Amino acid sequence: MTDLSKPPQAPAPDPGRPMVRAEGVHKSYGQVEVLKGIDLEVRQSEVFCLVGPSGSGKSTFLRCINHLEKINAGRLYVDGELVGYRQKGDRLHELKDREVALKRRDIGMVFQRFNLFPHMTALENVTEAPVQVKKEGRAAAKERAMALLERVGLADKAGSYPSQLSGGQQQRVAIARALAMQPKLMLFDEPTSALDPELVGDVLDVMRGLAEDGMTMIVVTHEMGFAREVGDALVFMDGGVVVESGHPREVLGNPQHERTRAFLSKVL
Amino acid sequence: MEKTDQGSVEQGRPETIRAVPVRHPGRWVSVAVVAVLGAMLLHVLFTNPALDWDFVGATLRDPTVVHGIWVTLELTALSMLMGVVGGVLLAVMRLSKNPVLSGTAWFYIWVFRGTPVLVQLVLWNNIGFLWKQISLGVPFGPSFWSQDSNTLVPVFTAALLGLGLNEAAYMAEIVRAGIQSVDEGQSEAAHALGMSRATVLRRIVLPQAMRVIIPPTGNETISMLKTTSLVQVISLVELFTAGHDISTRTYKPIAAMIAISIYYLLLTSILTVGQYYLERYYARGANRTLPPTPLQRVRALFAGRAPAKTAAPASPAAPAAPDAPGGAPGGAPGGAPNDAPDGGKDA
């Protein structure tokens, strides 16, 4: 709501520019291949929804985008740059931890289990990364954090520890924590799956607000209503491949594949 | 449903139960046994001539014993400091992805945990037999600085090396267990925010690991306070050596040992209190409310209340379903009493 909470140097929205591009992304854990060649493109300011049954690889793909998981084959680009590697000639060189960390600053992530830091208050959770990573002044970081907590409707809980907050409140603090780094891309890994049905709405409202402000978002979700209403693009994944993709209303309203129909008939 | 007619619906609430409590005759027997044993102990303590209480008092005031307390405390504090710092370092090395670092840490722990601390003390005290001189310089090349081993490693330093380096091996395992107890999602979330490995460890993982690390570290400290008595073998005069010297000089070992035991008990009691407050500090965020401190308990007792839990900074906000109207369910004669536990989810 307040201007303070918005990134001051927000890049000019350019809906045509690809923010994330995946070309034949493969990922395996030992013998098990979880991603079997993912091709997709997420444009700037787009709300991109990943849906599919559990085990379909959608969370794994999300975690590859900020290099929490290494990919085994293919290419993955964020904002035009390779994720986790540098190309020199025709060989890829692994990035140093420091370089990976530098890129992660620009990518916010929200987890299914919130993963708030339990030994810090809500406010400290939000100020921690700006102060420790960006070396922002404490006073300035605190002021911005309060604005962000205000934005997610939790200014009055600034002094509370995560254990004193409900799931929905914790998830909203987690979103504020990610926004505090002023990311150009937000990843949501089933952000409402661990919440009581009553509390889902508050979190989705915050995400809706972010979408309206032009944030590029990739959302792994089972909330088909949210996908249909807010999503700009949707991909249905199963067994490590993209089965079907398109505008959410088309895919959800008129699925072309048998597998998509079967899945949607169970969740809708 | 019909049975409620017979019940006390009219009264609103059935009468409070005043049942006869279960009797515990066994407790009275145990009280008698303990009382007899206690009386026997007191009898020995105050009638046995070998227990010279005046001598115990004199030993407590003996200057070498009083000085020994300080040596014991110094040795405990410094070797625990070495242990904790070394332990954190070794634990981080062991968990490192670098095989050289983790292998080195494993080897260190293997050696220092695998040999008796008594042996290590004697070894450090006799390091001069191995190297007469200790030098700083290029390996196998010229040296810039050199010092006689016995000057460089006096008996106190030998004691410190023996106790501290041994302790580091044990602390390493405690710290490692603590680090591994922290949920992986924590470091994932921190990495996702762009934090470096060092920052994640220092700001996110270690503070949470402390909750698991502190209790065994308290045990280690108390244990160390007593283990320092082993330095008697290298003739360093601390509390035990001072007491032992007095006992061999006067042939009053029981009285001398009772005197120094009083000091050991006093010191471990103080450490226990310190440990309690340290644990309480690191429990913040983990418990919704912190348990009251003993002082708060005492105050609450004098205020005539049950020990109240100290209020957490903010109310444990749970935006749950609105409470069911908390009236007495009775009143409607013939109606089924609404004794279903207030279901939060019913629409």
From TrEMBL, chain A:
Q: Which domain of life is it from?
A: Bacteria
Q: Does the keyword Cell membrane apply?
A: no
E.C. numbers: 7.4.2.1
Keywords, sorted A to Z:
ATP-binding, Nucleotide-binding, Transport
Principal EC category = translocase
Q: Which reaction does it catalyse?
A: a polar amino acid(out) + ATP + H2O = a polar amino acid(in) + ADP + phosphate + H(+)
Question: Which GO molecular-function terms appear in the entry?
Answer: ATP binding; ATP hydrolysis activity; ATPase-coupled polar amino acid-transporter activity
> In this entry, which stretches build a coiled coil?
none
Residue span(s) of domain ABC transporter: 20-264
UniProt region (Disordered), positions on chain:
1-21
Query: So what family is this one in?
Result: Belongs to the ABC transporter superfamily.
Q: What is this protein called?
A: ABC-type polar-amino-acid transporter
TrEMBL record, chain B:
Cite the record's Low complexity compositional bias ranges.
310-326
> Which residue spans traverse the membrane?
28-46, 66-93, 105-131, 151-170, 254-278
Q: Where is this region: Disordered?
A: 310-347
The GO terms describing molecular function are:
transmembrane transporter activity
As for family, the record states: Belongs to the binding-protein-dependent transport system permease family.
Q: GO cellular component annotations, sorted alphabetically? A: ATP-binding cassette (ABC) transporter complex
Q: Which residues form the ABC transmembrane type-1 domain?
A: 69-275
Principal subcellular localization: membrane
Q: How does it sit in the membrane?
A: Multi-pass membrane protein
Q: What is this protein called?
A: Permease
Q: What is the lineage of its organism?
A: Bacteria, Bacillati, Actinomycetota, Actinomycetes, Kitasatosporales
- Mind listing the GO biological process terms from this record? amino acid transport
Pfam families xrefs: BPD_transp_1
Q: Localized where?
A: Cell membrane
Keywords of the record, alphabetical order, are: Amino-acid transport, Cell membrane, Membrane, Transmembrane, Transmembrane helix, Transport
Under InterPro entries, the record lists:
AA_ABC_transptr_permease_3TM, ArtM/GltK/GlnP/TcyL/YhdX-like, MetI-like, MetI-like_sf
Q: What species does this protein belong to?
A: Kitasatospora phosalacinea
